[in-house]
Recover the amino acids of this structure.
């Protein structure tokens, strides 16, 4: 045997998955993407432990997956762009600049003296932050939205009541629906969970969809706000068809929707 050769690796030795080899990189990123699909969010420290690599390597993988449009990096980890599965706090971390632009564009449509029904959700909350016209009446199922205007004497606030949903930070249920039945508003802004060019707007939870339909029913006009990650998706429970929608405000042009007559307004950063 040639003694100049080094020893062969032991059959049971572990591979160094911190290697920059494309094979190992692709394997790690596939595992990260699978965990995101299963859980909705991942954390750098946990991934480093499970994959047996450095935190720096995990951050590099997350950046690569974000550039592929598969996730949104957050402080300490990442969240899926399939935001139907996330709580409000994690949804707010997805495409925040796009949501802020959409919120500003939607707020610009509201005139002094009008009444706006605002759903709980990261994009309706962005619109609430951008609302500067006064006087104003806000009807909302969101304590976060109500808190924004709590100390403003020129904003009248009405809460829907209902049962508190911790993950969604929203008030749902028959009491909220009954309250909205007695309201009349200029604008309804139900949160958009899923948007399809043919099927309209839908939501993954039946109680949430029922509340959103009540918002639409009590208003003269309905605004649907979305970042582009919501486009081309459906959820089990119907919220509104396009004939009931005054405008879809979104951060990117949507050719598929525009082709079938969806009233698309593109928000500019």
């Amino acid at each position: 045997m040639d003694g100049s050769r080094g020893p062969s690796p032991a059959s049971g030795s572990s591979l160094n998955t911190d290697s920059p080899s494309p094979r190992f990189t692709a394997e790690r990123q596939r595992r990260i993407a699978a965990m995101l699909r299963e859980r909705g969010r991942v954390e750098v420290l946990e991934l480093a432990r499970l994959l047996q690599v450095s935190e720096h390597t995990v951050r590099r993988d997350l950046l690569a997956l974000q550039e592929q449009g598969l996730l949104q990096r957050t402080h300490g980890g990442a969240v899926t762009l399939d935001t139907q599965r996330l709580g409000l706090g994690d949804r707010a971390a997805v495409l925040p600049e796009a949501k802020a632009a959409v919120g500003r564009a939607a707020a610009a449509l509201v005139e002094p003296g009008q009444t706006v029904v605002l759903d709980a959700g990261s994009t309706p909350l962005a619109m609430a932050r951008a609302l500067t016209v006064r006087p104003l009446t806000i009807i909302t199922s969101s304590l976060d939205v109500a808190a924004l205007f709590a100390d403003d004497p020129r904003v009248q606030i009405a809460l829907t009541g209902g049962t508190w949903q911790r993950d969604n930070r929203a008030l749902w249920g028959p009491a909220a629906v009954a309250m909205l039945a007695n309201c009349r508003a200029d604008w309804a802004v139900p949160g958009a969970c899923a948007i399809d060019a043919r099927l309209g707007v839908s939501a993954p939870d039946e109680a949430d969809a029922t509340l959103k339909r009540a918002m639409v029913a009590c208003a003269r006009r309905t605004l649907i706000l979305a970042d582009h990650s919501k486009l081309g998706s459906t959820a089990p429970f119907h919220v509104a068809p396009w004939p009931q929608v005054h405008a879809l405000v979104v951060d990117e042009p949507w050719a598929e929707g525009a082709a079938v007559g969806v009233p698309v307004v593109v928000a500019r950063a």
Observations:
- Residues 22-39 form the longest helix (18 residues).
